[in-house]
Structures are given as structure tokens and as C-alpha cells.
Amino acid sequence: MTIKEVEIKSGLQRSNIRFYERCGLLKPQVLSNKYREYSQEDLDELMRIKLLRGLGITVEQIKQLQSGRLKLRDVMDTRIKETEAEAEGAQYAGKLCRAIFDGNISYSELNGSSYADYLPTEENDTPMTLDVGNETANVVKMTFKRIAARLIDMTLYSEIFLGALRLFGLSRYDLPDLSMIRIGSNFSVRSFLISRDLAVILAAFLLMLIIEPVLLHFFGTTAGKWLMGLRVKARDGSRLDYTDSLKRTFGVIFYGYALGVISIVTLICQIRNVYNLSRGETMEWDLTLWSKVTDGKVRGYRFAVCITAAAVVFIVGFAVERARLAPPNTGELTVGEFAENFNYLSGVKYTDFFARYDVVPIDENGVWTAGCRYPLSESSAYGDILWSTLPLDAEPVCSYVISPGGNVTKVTFELEKAGDSGGVRALTELVLTMVQAYAFAEADIAPFSPESFGIEREIRNTNPFEDFRLTVGNTLVTFEVEYSGYVPEGDYLEPYFRCVISMEKLEN
User: Fold this and answer.
1) CB burial of residue 405 (10 Å; 0-12, 13-18, 19+)
2) Domains of the chain
3) Of 58, 95, 437, 494, which shows the fewest CB atoms inside 10 Å?
4) 156 or 352: which leads in pLDDT
């Protein structure tokens, strides 16, 4: 029989039937095409389950009846005592339990079909309703919890990968954009069918294949499932072995996400999974291994543990990133040491610059590298660095005042752009990087200090097209700008622009 035929003959919804399968009460034959074939014995078993569930017998009690650990008379005796203490509306359940008890039959002799309509209705009495609708509510709850658990796990795997990138001074934007389809050697287009974060997705799947099978094998759960009170077991209640855990994890990636390569296909798979879960269907990866996901209580302390762990990870990650902003040279600087500081900080902030072009902005003699591209402003709405080519009409000029001892006492950066060949963006990040490379190093201002955060915030909050002065430690930072033509619109200006950035050591 198909499940549709079983639905009609049993009067149960498909979600309830699937629920009993996941609980291990019903075990139909799984064919090679993964469809289930139900026998008459399965239907008889289902009718027994329906009857007993309608009488208030728990799933666990039915399991024990099936295994022989409980006797039907004992269960009926217990249920009789319970129903006698219940409200008047449950009187028919007690009478039916009494009839089964007096029949002195075993569990295998119980005929669910005949007992379902056993009791006649007396005048002024309301017939008993066998309520097995709870299972659908359980299915809805399980659907939400399983989706939430998977989202938590996938987010965790992605963050582990991105955290590892940060330790090496990289970010997600340093990864190859696999959504770009190249046509010829010089032209490429973005495919909307492929996620721009495909490299992160594939890395997360790889981590999932490494981590999740181990967790399922030893603990029967993952971080997300543990948080939502879910566990994965074999049908007999035992732990999954490592091979089955690995197969299940790959099944989730293959059937649940379609490998995550084509965005629209992944979305369709996700919608189908939610739909099947809401109907009580067993997922392909559980059906293949005959594994099951069991539901438990959501414990409040688990959320506290996760929030604490997330806070620790954030603090450590933030500390690592800030520590990397410490320039390699401090105190009084030579031209070469200033250039080394500037190039180092540029590499920390904009690793993509070096990864793609393998050049430094300022050479060891303090001269701006010809044709060097450099990020001039903060990240855009999409998280990309806003790039502009320097120089625009002429090479930026870097000049220095050197003390008799060979140390830099003044650094000047001058940039001029004229004509309509393209506008110039705000130089906010360039100014900040120069200040960190020279003024922070001279004053030995630590990246973690309140002074460091205050100066960074002040520079970023200044109008990038107005003159300003700022004292950092023992250094006077001056930004002078001259422009004509169009007024600034956002962080963009044209057609004539000239600016001078200077950092001069003050007399003690």
C-alpha cells in the first residue's frame, strides 16, 4: 500500500503517520527508489497505535508494549485509574479501557479497527472523540527547531572559516569571486544564479563535513541541535557510527543544499525541505540511514552558554584585529621606517591590494609608487573597498623634512587633479593610515588605547572636503583642500581638486 492508501484506511493524516515512523513505532519497507511500501501488518499496527494514542497512552508506553517490556493489561490498569480521576468528558475512554481490560487479551490480539467504534452512545451522552491531532503540533514544533538548528550550525561553520581568515590578515573579499563568469580574457559578468560568497559557502560545507560527523558520532548532536534540544540517533536508539554520520552530513549538503553552487536550486531545495518537514516527512538523509531526530526541551542555560561563547569569540577576534594595527616601527622614524609602517598598515587593512597587485604604495625612499591603486574611503554598502586610481592627473608627491640625526620631522603628501577625467573620492582612510603610520608610532599610541579610538573617530567624522587640524601626541596633523567646479556630493568631487596632508613634529 502507498501512504495515500494508508491515510484513507486509517483516517490519519500523513504528518501523523510520518511522526510515528520517526518515533520508531512504524517501520514500513523502504524500496530501492526510496518510496515506502506499507503492508497489512503495518496498517494493523497503525490502527493499534491510533487507538492507544486516542486513549492517552504515550508513545514511550507503546514502544514498551511493542518490545514486550510492558503488558497491555498493566497499561490499561494504569490508564483506568487515570481516567477515573479525569473530568467527566473522558468517561468513555475509561469504559473502553475497562472493556479491553476485561477482554483479557494481549497486545498482538488488540484489534484497533473494531474497538474504535466499540462504545454505543447513550441518550444525552456525547460520543468519545479519539484525538490524535497532537502529532501535527509536534511536527510544526520540530520543523521550526530543525530549521533554526541548521541555520545556527551553518552560521557557525562560516564564522569559523572567516575567523581563520582574519588570523592570516585576510577577509571574505580577498577570496576569489566565483560568481563572475569570464568571457574571453578581459571581460567578465556577474552571474545572479551563483552567490558571490560561494567560496565561503564551499568552505563552510567542507568544515561541516569535518566537524559534524564527529559531533554526531560522539555526542549525537551539533551546536545548533544542542541549543534547540535535538539529538540524532539510529532507529534503535543507539549512536550513529562515524561512517553513517559522515553519510548523513553529506546527504544534508547534497539533498538539502544541492551543494550550494546554484543559488536558485539551493533555494528550491530549502523550500522543499521546509514543506516536507511540515508534513512530517522523513528527510532523505535520515531515510537512507534509517536515522531519526529526537526532540527534547530547550534549556535556557544553553542560550546563555552560546551568548557567552559568541561574546568571547568576538572579543578575541576584535583583539587580534586591533593588535595587528600596531606599526612595526615606533618612536623616531626614518623615511624607510615610515614607509614600512605605511605599507604594513595598508596591507593589514587592504590585503586585497597586495594580493592582486603585489606592489607597495610607498617605496623605501618614501616615493609614491607610479600608478599605484589605493583605497581612499570606507567600505561601501556591499562591503567592498571603494577604489580610485592614484595619481589622477599627476603622481602624488611625498616629501619629508629630515633632522640632522636622519629622522623624519615632517611628512607631506600632495595630490592634485584637474579636468573631467574622473572625480576624486574622500581621502579619509588615506589620512588615517598616514596618521597611524607616523603620529601613532611617534607617540607610541597603542591600538587598544582610548586615545587611538578617539582619534580614529575624529578623523572619520571630519568633512573630507574641508580643512582641519588635529594634534596627535607630539604631532600636528593638517589637512588643506582646494577645489573648484562642482560642489561635493556625498564623498565624490569634480572637476578640480588639490589637497595637502602634512604631519609635523612639534617642539617639546
Assistant:
1) exposed
2) 3-128 (1.10.1660.10), 135-320 (no CATH), 335-505 (no CATH)
3) 58
4) 156
